Amino acid sequence: MALRRLGEALSSIPPLQSALLLLLSLLAAIHLAKLLLRPRRLEPPGPFPWPLIGNAAQLGSAPHLTFARLARTYGDVFQLRLGSRPVVVLNGERAIRGALVRQGAAFAGRPRFPSFQLVSGGRSLAFGGYSELWKLQRRLAHSTVRAFSTGSPAPRRLLEQHLLGEARALVALLVRGSAGGAFRDPSRSLVVAVANVMSALCFGRRYSHGDAEFLRLVGRNEQFGRTLNRDFYGFVRGKFLQRRGRLRPGAAPRDMLDAFISLQQEQPRLPLEHVPATVTDIFGASQDTLSTALQWLIIFLIRYPKVQVKMQEEVDRIVGRDRLPCAEDQPHLPYVMAFLYESMRFSSFVPVTIPHATTVDTSIMGYLIPKDTVIFINQWSVNHDPEKWSNPEDFDPTRFLDENGFINKDLTSNVMIFSLGKRRCIGEELSKMQLFLFTSILVHQCNFIANPNEDSKMDFTYGLTIKPNALTINFQMKLGKMPSLPLTFQSISSLTTKRLVYEHNGILKCIS
């Protein structure tokens, strides 16, 4: 009787729908059979993937939190499927360091996503595949960034003066916008300020905060990843084409773009078109991550007013009121540095790195990982590991200070925000220097007041970086007039006449 009713029910379904139902049932059965019959002993475990979509629907709006939750069930190495593509997720310092440091070359690839091939005309350092050409491109880029930031004294002073001038302009803009007790969203001003520092380094000039072209390119940095391969790359390439014909052989580079063109002439194995692509990467990645970090730093200052006061007291005690903080003050401002490291740890504003891919068949923690497997690196899991950090969900800068009040350098090295290994961010030291100077100058000059009509919850939007949702803040100038710059931009122009030369070991040096 039951079989007859089932037959009658099936006979009432139109032939086309019956065929589709049969096909879907067959696909599901084949998919399940593959999962059950294939050898799984050496594959990473993971949640059941649904036909066609895999585990994509499980990731939610905060994948880094989903990854950490799944790691509690399946371990620090587990496997997902996004559509039909297998993806291995690494959590925790042991798994991540084991892959990126101990097997750096094996995990240094990038997935062959079509979108990655479009970035900067397929010549991107950040998104490009691991190859001999890529290693040369990275070596030249790293030496150039180091030369203009933390290398020789002259370019380092030049960077500092660019940043001091931009920080002064930023303070004036924020305070002016808060006149009459007004509350304002500082995010766009922070984006333009950081972009101006990078513009000065890369192209030798800054832009007005009201410049229409510059604002169109960088004023909405949450869209940077979507416009990188069009508008911004075109902007940089235009400057490159202007410079290429004008730069005389042997002339002293005035900025990073000049330096890259000169290096390419010394190293013709790097195609000329890789120069604008590399500068685009350096500019774009820096302005996006740094402006996001500064937004988090300011939110922490209003969220934790006692921390704000303690930072201001330390800066006033060390720097005084007759000058602005400078790079030489950094060793004497341990609480400011502790605040920066705790902000990076707590926010983990780069929670998951750009996806990696394996370049060979390899293994990690006993699991076999085939060549060309997509790898997700969950940095957030390291920064919030309860076995590494006491009360990781509490914001506490003092965790980075030792019993004598000095920075605990062993502990700061545990913060994972700039990745590790072959793909470690080449601008890490440059970024830390900029964050220190911007933050110390802001707390030296301003009081930050939260809007009492807004919820202080730290909600965010997930992307390449975690961006805090907009909050309005009142910026009040502290007592006293803002000190003048130690040097004017005109007086440091002579620093740019120093010549950067390429050494055979791939290092840029500054000579008189």
TrEMBL record:
Pfam families the UniProt entry points to: p450
Cofactor dependency:
heme
**Domain of life, source organism:** Eukaryota
UniProt keyword Magnesium present: no
What would be an example GO MF term here?
Answer: heme binding
Keyword line: Heme, Iron, Metal-binding, Monooxygenase, Oxidoreductase
- Enumerate the Gene3D superfamilies for this protein: Cytochrome P450 (1.10.630.10)
Residues where heme binds: 425
Biological process, per Gene Ontology = hormone biosynthetic process; progesterone metabolic process
**The keyword Glycosyltransferase appears for this protein:** no
Signal peptide boundaries: none
Family to which the UniProt record says this protein belongs: Belongs to the cytochrome P450 family.
Q: Under what name is this protein listed?
A: Cytochrome P450 family 1 subfamily B member 1
Instruction: Supply the source organism for this entry.
Output: Chelydra serpentina
Its lineage reads:
Eukaryota, Metazoa, Chordata, Craniata, Vertebrata
